[in-house]
């Protein structure tokens, strides 16, 4: 069988990018990038303090389900990135839908945000991992702000809910949160994962075949028309997964992967700031999801959806949240996988 020649420089560049990303995440985890400030363990510890430990589950976005499908590239994305995923053709995809929060049994209607995480499995062994939310902007700019938001959101033991006064004080002290809060207020939660659009939120750097570098963001735009969450759905704790199963039983679901290209001066280090609406957008192809399974046994269970794992042609921007996300995801992943291993070991010891 004839095989395509291996691009040694491409492989070396990919390895260098992975090593650099891992080093940045490790340095942030250890606190080297933010001495005397918050680190990834601080953030994960605060999730556990606020909402308890649910062994074997992610510390955030704990409730979810796995999905499988593919990405059908139309080749248009190659105009901004030389990543193999944007060449015409099909790339296998595994992913996960989820809602924010640490409680794997939380009612779906308890939060207004949904998330989509994907792993594009490229033919040469590279991967593109992305974790997206259903809001185009994030609530905070920096890891320290995120930590302070978690502290302000700590449930009051008397009510089981955050203290409104503490949250209000945090918002007043951090006006950067206003665009996120305004967007959520103006956009009622969707009735389905299938009719939800998802955004990368963070900026990334794309490099094309000629070496030109441009800042980009991306989103997945559903072909299923948006509809708001209904009053009846609010009474159903698992309506999102039930709805997805019912829709997939009728056939695959589709989203268009749309890349937004920044202009000089557009912020790349601020996830709270949207880019102007007139920026060039490129429909790079279609994401097709054809099956779903419970996360306890699905292909996404043991995946760390680290957004800094990128193929050659894509790289992290200077957004400080990216290294923080990578580091916090690693701490969460290590803790939950240890918990699963201990549980498996204890169950094995009790077998006759």
Tell me what you see in this structure:
This protein has 352 residues and is an alpha+beta fold. It has one domain: Catalase core domain (Catalase HpII,  Chain A, domain 1, Beta Barrel), CATH 2.40.180.10. 31% of the residues lie in helices and 22% in strands. Strands 1, 2, 3, 4, 5, 6, 7, 8, 9 and 10 form a ten-stranded antiparallel sheet that branches. Helix 1 (8-30) packs across helix 8. The longest helix is centred in the last third of the chain and has 31 residues, at 320-350. The protein starts with 7 loop residues before the first helix and ends with a helix. The model is unreliable at 1-35 (pLDDT under 50).
Keywords:
352 residues; alpha+beta; Catalase HpII,  Chain A, domain 1; ten-stranded antiparallel β-sheet; 22% strand
By secondary-structure content and strand pairing, the structural class works out as alpha+beta
Number of strands: 10
CATH classification class: Mainly Beta
Percentage of residues in DSSP E strands:
15-25%
Averaging pLDDT over every residue, what do you get?
90
Describe the structure in brief.
The chain is an alpha+beta fold. Helices cover 31% and strands 22% of the residues.
Q: Can you lay out the helices and strands and say which pair or pack?
A:
Blueprint: H1 8-30, H2 40-51, E1 63-73, E2 89-99, E3 115-121, E4 127-133, H3 143-152, H4 164-173, H5 178-186, E5 198-199, E6 204-207, E7 213-222, H6 231-234, H7 239-248, E8 253-261, E9 281-294, E10 314-316, H8 320-350
Antiparallel strand pairs: 1-2, 1-9, 2-3, 3-4, 5-7, 6-7, 6-10, 7-8, 8-9
Helix pairs in contact: 1-8, 2-3, 2-8
